[in-house]
Specification:
The complex is a heterotrimer of chains A (297), B (405) and C (335).
Chain A lengths: L1 H19 L8 H18 L3 H25 L4 H21 L9 E2 L19 H22 L1 H11 L1 H6 L4 H27 L1 E2 L1 H5 L1 H14 L6 H21 L14 H16 L3 H11 L1
Antiparallel strand pairs in A: 1-2
Chain B lengths: L3 H18 L8 E8 L6 H20 L10 E8 L4 H13 L4 E4 L3 H14 L3 E3 L15 E3 L4 H19 L5 E7 L2 H16 L3 E8 L8 H8 L5 E5 L2 H14 L5 E5 L9 H5 L7 E4 L7 H14 L5 H20 L4 H9 L28 E6 L2 E6 L16
Parallel strand pairs in B: 1-2, 1-3, 3-4, 4-5, 6-7, 6-8, 8-9, 9-10
Antiparallel strand pairs in B: 10-11, 11-12
Chain C lengths: L20 H24 L4 H32 L6 H18 L4 H27 L6 H22 L13 E4 L2 E4 H23 L1 H11 L1 H6 L4 H23 L11 H14 L4 H18 L7 H16 L10
Antiparallel strand pairs in C: 1-2
Helix pairs in contact in C: 2-6, 2-9, 2-10, 2-11, 3-4, 3-5, 3-9, 3-10, 4-9, 6-7, 6-9, 7-9, 10-11, 10-12, 11-12
Classes of the chains: A mainly alpha (297), B alpha/beta (405), C mainly alpha (335).
Chain lengths: 297, 405, 335
């Protein structure tokens, strides 16, 4: 469950930049990893409280994201090129972390384990529901921020820029500034998800923070649910999380008649892959987006 | 120190959790052990095999009457698929614990094990590591985590020791070696420990080459670089594909060295290495933990494994088998399925009839490491992996220098 | 987007020169920079000459392998503008096909590679015609990307179910190596490297000299325009994906003899292939060849100085620099 919440927060963050901002990012792992590593490093090396670590990570990610996006926009990278640039950017962070001594290189960082549950240090017994409540709180906050953003002036300008950059510019909208605001917000939310990840799993390494899989995990729920919609990423995260869980359960305890499939490694992921393709092909606007469109008609 | 009151509370909470989950193995005549291995993803081959090894152990123990001190309670194995990812591994371990597993085994990869270990410690459920080499896992002072195999620095140090002994035993000069290791904690800590011990033994490391764990598809340059120091022996630490590439590059370059000597190599004692490597594999030495080819019991287990699953049982699967036995012995000793009591029992356990070639019984020190874990040397001879050193474990005579030019 | 590819309409003249003058200049400049760098490594690098020789040779061979994998991608990326995440998985699929044909049917692996070509063409064609064509057309990038991602997961796990995860090997009858200036040239790798040149040349011929090639270039330059003059764009998409899959089949066939075959064996090439394709220029065949060579050399020679994954970091820095400074790639047409 907590994992679904983490995916959902990430997807909400990704959706702001790529759904509303129209800048397709394939490197959100960079910002997730910055959040995750900020918490892990500041806590393990300097004893900084993880709540502050999360805030710091969010700020750092926003700054890094803004600088990077500025470079990309300055050099007019668009579409697939922009996506590949973000991808390369995340890969660079991955390789850099693997080579930095103070981040423990390939070994990753462990959160010191406490004996008692502590709200202050955000650590509880692994089966505790408190993780769930914190994740839910963060998710609600992220959604609230994105609702606020979409209805705010900068948010409206941002979607205007996405829909027609030239028209927006001719109306006097500061294109670059609004795009950078969008990116900063998106990166900050993603970094929060990363920080929470570290606290929940008590460990982060280069793969968990900056791996390509992380970037994919940010995109899939948003696309499945509906890009550029408020509720899409949430629905997507629940569907994706629920789907992979159900399939894994099914393969573990197959229904009568299919016992020979039990324990066949790879089957659950293969089924998941097929369902993913089917959803993307037949629901062009995602689950929520398609339903909304039908209802409007 | 963990407060006693707290552990009782935790145990109570856990038991509550167990009763809440009802039918999933919480009852006292069925005791569940959770196994977390990479059942899909790049390591699915070895992960599946380890899971089979654990399953065979559970079946054998049940067939022999289960846990006698708990009214012959039967064991069940609940498997978790880490997919080779640390986060997934931990999520699976959490699931297994909340479904009522009294102990965990796993996980083959160091970073996944690190994650699962943190979870196990926080939940007060013992984790017996079958395979995972990184020293760091047991460096946090965890109480609930135990490891059967030797860690990286033990392997590096004993590797240097046996290499020097081999030189002395055969009257060959082994004074200069080059070391090639995979990037990352495993390669780095094995190398550091090797160098420290080698210097004591009068062996000099003339070149140290580390290569990347990904995108390593041609070893010729790295091997040439390592050989440029004119070493007597090339020492290698890494995983299967990269170590195979290195052996092939050595064969192609055909340098004037006495042997390729793997330490904790994922390839050189693997049963598919002799056929995959062909002539390149011939004579390659490997210092690694190894299933006991001299033990009747291990031979019998391997034979039945082959019959049941249709493939040879590698050392990793034997370690999973052994891990289940350790937990079963712990249950037998504690006489209850309470994880906290089980931790205490395993911490003080002694298993004499080990399935691996160790220098003594399995006993854990206060960090959770197996005190008597050690390496033995195997060699590829006539397309087979033979145990060759130390002599008491030998199934065939050591050939050294190991290369024909 | 479509303007940035290398299939610009002016190349459709009757006898186009193989390389345009601007391209020749870029090649010369690249060679000059490379020679300077290599000379620097020899003179100031502080490494034994023989080792540098070996690094260069290995780098060229590795570059050839990378180029081989990238050729199919540059076609797919250049014409269809989709980020094909299944490139590596398709490579693995062709390697396993070769493995099956050579161990089960006892064929020579190179003959098996030839037989793999029609199989992979059909696979690529069917995938594009049956699935991908449904998710293309709008401006979104995420849907095609997710579908190829799904395909990649499906192939990897399908292979895992069918073959298990234990490494398999394909024996090459030509295994071994030749020695050259005191360095070793691995024969199967050399063949793969030459294969890249042959595939590159054939692909250029198909694009330049056949009606299909003309249609592909027309679609790449402007798909709406092509549709207006009667080209069946969706059919061309499918043919292009099929052709891309053919390149992958050849790559898989030539690489199988020196690869430890596991279901994820091809994955490491996906990322690098993208780097190479963008470096060389979208849709540019000489670009893919030169790009592959550059990445192979940077990785191998760089590894003499930067241990472990450090040389890969160099590759990505180079990639970002090219993206910022020359986003159309070395051989791409100007925007």
């Amino acid at each position: 469950m907590v994992k679904i919440l983490i995916f959902a927060i990430m997807a909400v963050g990704w959706n702001i930049m790529s759904g509303y901002g129209g800048m397709f990012s394939f490197g959100h792992a960079a910002f997730f990893g910055i959040g995750a590593y900020s918490v892990a490093y500041l806590l393990s090396a300097h004893g900084l409280n993880p709540w502050f670590g999360m805030l710091f990570g969010a700020m750092l990610a926003a700054i890094v994201g803004t600088v990077f996006a500025f470079l990309c926009l300055r050099y007019k990278l668009e579409g697939s090129y922009f996506a590949l640039a973000t991808f390369a950017f995340a890969q660079m962070f991955f390789l850099l972390t693997e080579n930095l001594e103070f981040l423990n290189r390939t070994e990753g960082i462990n959160i010191p384990i406490l004996q008692d549950d502590s709200w202050l240090m955000m650590q509880f017994h692994p089966t505790s529901y408190n993780y769930y409540w914190i994740g839910l709180f963060l998710l609600v906050a992220a959604v609230a921020v994105s609702i606020w953003f979409v209805h705010s002036r900068p948010g409206r300008f941002t979607t205007a820029i996405r829909d027609d950059e030239v028209a927006a510019e001719s109306l006097g909208i500061a294109v670059l500034r609004h795009r950078l605001i969008t990116v900063a917000l998106s990166c900050a939310i993603t970094a929060i998800a990363g920080g929470f990840y570290t606290q929940y799993y008590m460990f982060v390494g280069p793969n968990q923070g900056f791996g390509m899989q992380v970037s994919v995990d940010a995109i899939v729920p948003a696309v499945i649910g509906g890009v550029g919609t408020i509720w899409g990423p949430l629905i997507g995260a629940v569907v994706v999380g629920g789907l992979s869980e159900t399939i894994a359960d099914l393969v573990r305890n197959p229904p009568a008649g299919l016992e020979f499939l039990q324990g066949l490694s790879g089957l659950d992921v293969a089924i998941y892959a097929i369902l993913l393709i089917i959803i993307v092909v037949f629901l062009p606007k995602g689950i929520y987006g398609t339903i909304r469109e039908r209802l409007r008609k | 120190m963990r407060k006693k009151r707290l552990s009782i509370a935790a145990a109570a909470a856990l038991l509550l959790g167990l009763t809440a989950c009802g039918d999933n193995g919480g009852s006292s005549d069925e005791i569940a052990i959770g196994a977390v291995h990479p059942l899909s993803g790049p390591l699915a081959g070895v992960g599946g095999m380890m899971n089979d090894g654990a399953e065979l152990a559970v079946d054998d123990i049940n067939a022999a009457g289960g846990i006698k001190s708990i009214h012959g309670a039967k064991l069940t194995l609940m498997d978790g698929d880490s997919e080779g990812s640390a986060a997934v591994g931990q999520t699976e371990a959490r699931r297994l614990v909340s479904d009522g597993a009294v102990a965990l085994i796993g996980t083959y990869q160091s970073d996944v094990t690190e994650n699962v270990a943190a979870m196990a410690e926080r939940s007060d459920v013992p984790l017996v590591i079958d395979v995972a080499i990184d020293d760091k896992i047991l460096s946090h002072g965890y109480k609930y985590v135990f490891r059967i195999q030797p860690n990286a620095s033990t392997m590096g140090a004993s590797g240097a020791e046996v290499l020097s002994q081999i030189g002395k035993a055969t009257g060959q000069d082994v004074t200069k070696v080059s070391y090639m290791h995979i990037e990352g904690a495993f390669g780095e800590s094995t190398y550091q420990a090797f160098r420290k011990e080698a210097e004591k033994q009068g062996i000099q490391v003339v070149r140290n080459v580390s290569y990347p764990a990904t995108n390593f598809s041609d070893a010729t340059t790295a091997v040439t670089q390592a050989l440029s120091g004119d070493p007597d022996v090339l020492v290698v630490s890494g995983y299967y594909p990269d170590n195979l590439l290195i052996a092939e590059a050595v064969k192609a370059i055909n340098p004037n060295i006495k042997a390729v000597f793997g330490i904790a190599s994922g390839a050189y004692d693997d049963t598919s290495f002799p056929s995959d490597g062909g002539a390149a594999a011939n004579g390659v030495l490997s210092a690694n933990y190894h299933y006991s080819a001299t033990s009747k019991r291990a031979q019998d287990i391997r034979k039945r494994f082959q019959e049941k699953y249709g493939r040879p049982m590698e050392t990793a699967a034997m370690l999973s088998y052994q891990a289940v036995e350790v937990i079963a012995a712990g249950l037998e000793k504690s006489g209850s399925n309470d994880p906290v009591a089980l931790q205490n029992a395993i911490a003080n356990i002694r298993i004499d009839d080990t399935l691996l070639e160790f220098k003594g019984p399995i006993e854990f020190d206060d960090k959770g490491e197996n005190k008597n874990a050690t390496v033995i040397v195997t060699q590829v001879q006539k397309g087979r992996i033979e145990q060759v050193f130390p002599e008491e474990f030998a199934t065939s005579d050591l050939i050294f220098p190991a290369r024909d030019h | 987007m479509s303007k940035t590819t290398n299939f610009s309409p002016e190349q459709t003249s009757a006898h186009p020169p193989l390389l345009k003058r601007r391209q020749t200049r870029i090649i010369l400049a690249t060679i000059a920079v490379a020679v300077l760098l290599v000379a620097g490594v020899y003179l100031l690098g502080g490494q034994p000459t023989r080792l540098v020789n070996q690094a260069l040779i290995s780098g060229v061979l590795l570059g050839g392998v990378y180029a081989l994998v990238s050729l199919g991608l540059t076609l797919i990326f250049g014409v269809l503008h989709i980020v094909n995440f299944a490139q590596g998985a398709m490579l693995t699929l062709s390697m396993y096909t070769v493995f099956m044909l050579s161990t089960q049917a006892g064929l020579n692996p190179y003959l098996a590679a030839v037989l793999t070509i029609p199989i992979m063409f059909a696979f690529g064609w069917a995938f594009q015609a049956g699935i991908m064509n449904r998710v293309m057309g709008d401006t979104s990038h995420e849907r095609p990307l997710l579908v190829t991602l799904g395909l990649s997961l499906l192939i990897i796990n399908g292979l895992l179910m069918a073959f298990g995860g234990r490494p398999a090997a394909v024996e090459s009858p030509l295994a071994g190596s030749i020695s050259l200036f005191g360095t070793l040239v691995d024969r199967p790798r050399l063949i793969a490297c030459l294969g890249a040149l042959v595939v590159g040349a054939l692909l250029t011929l198909v694009l330049r000299k056949t009606p299909l090639g003309l249609a592909i270039r027309a679609v790449a330059a402007n798909d709406t325009g092509a549709a207006l003059v009667g080209v069946n764009v969706k059919r061309i998409y499918a043919m292009t994906f099929g052709l891309g899959a053919v390149c992958v089949a050849v790559a898989g066939g030539l690489m199988a003899p020196f690869t430890s075959l596991i279901p994820t064996a091809g994955e490491q090439f996906t990322t690098l292939a993208f780097v190479i394709v963008v470096l060389g220029g979208l849709g540019s065949i000489p670009g893919a060849l030169v790009g592959g060579l550059i990445v192979g050399l940077v990785q191998t020679v760089g590894s003499l100085y930067l241990p472990g994954g450090g040389s890969l970091l160099l590759v990505f820095v180079l990639f970002l620099l090219v993206l910022f400074l020359r986003p159309q790639g070395l051989f791409g047409a100007k925007q």
